[in-house]
Design a protein that fits this description.
With 240 residues, this protein is mainly alpha-helical.
């Protein structure tokens, strides 16, 4: 009898402890959401989205999508955000995968950010890595998706990202690295430039890291059905 009582008592204690942990997690989640929402609203109050968009579009090197090679745009989507055309600004699948990796590594090993979230960061936030900042970026991404269509978002993204060596935007990168206008980029150059913004300080053009990143981009193109295996091999051969 005493053993049963002890077991019941232990089971009851475990249930109460689990309920307490769950309550604390809910409270922490609500606090995180509130802080992220405040940061998002403060950012918008400082500069509305229309003002930020105009700032990018008024740049001397701004290049519309119709002046960019389709392969470059496909490479960006394939490598950075394969569900870009279907998600609403936040990719819950990628986010869950990144969260699991971060928990396992006990650090921000992966971001799980969509192209829209990266645009939100480029427009409004610094590169600081924190949960509050990620929440603010996600909220801003949802706002951007409501205000702009996908093509406008992709166009703004490729015109605002950093490619390294002082090159901001695809035209500056195309001219700076290859000496040609973006529409003149060949397949190998398209796939190389699509990979650089992931870590421009690491992928110095011509180095082994940049080549491996390019190979990753090409593999993602194959996985996404943008190119065939034979076309992928031709692209990599062109890069040699």
């Amino acid at each position: 009898m005493k053993t049963r009582v002890k077991k019941r008592g232990a089971a009851l204690w475990c249930k109460r402890a689990a309920a307490l942990v769950l309550a604390l997690l809910v409270i922490a989640g609500l606090a995180l959401a509130a802080c992220g929402f405040r940061e998002y609203k403060d950012a918008l109050a400082r500069a509305p989205l229309s003002e930020k968009v105009e700032e990018i579009r008024s740049g001397a090197d701004y290049t519309p999508l119709d002046q960019l090679p389709p392969l470059y745009l496909d490479s960006v989507v394939a490598a950075e955000d394969k569900r870009f055309w279907t998600h609403g600004g936040v990719d819950l699948i990628a986010l869950g995968r990144a969260l699991a990796a971060d928990v396992a590594a006990l650090e921000f090993a992966q971001g799980g950010s969509t192209i829209t979230q990266q645009l939100a960061k480029n427009l409004y936030f610094s590169s600081e890595k924190s949960l509050v900042r990620k929440v603010a970026e996600a909220m801003m991404a949802l706002h951007i998706e409501q205000a702009l269509d996908k093509r406008a978002i992709l166009e703004l993204y490729v015109n605002s990202i950093y490619f390294g060596d002082g090159c901001y935007g695809i035209r500056a990168a195309s001219l700076g690295y290859y000496g040609v206008e973006p529409r003149q980029l060949n397949a190998a150059q398209c796939t190389m430039l699509a990979g650089l913004p992931n870590a421009p300080s690491v992928y110095s053009l011509g180095g082994d890291a940049a080549q491996k990143r390019q190979e990753y981009v090409v593999r993602q193109l194959v996985r996404g059905g943008y190119v065939t295996e034979d076309e992928a091999e031709a692209i990599l051969a062109q890069a040699e």
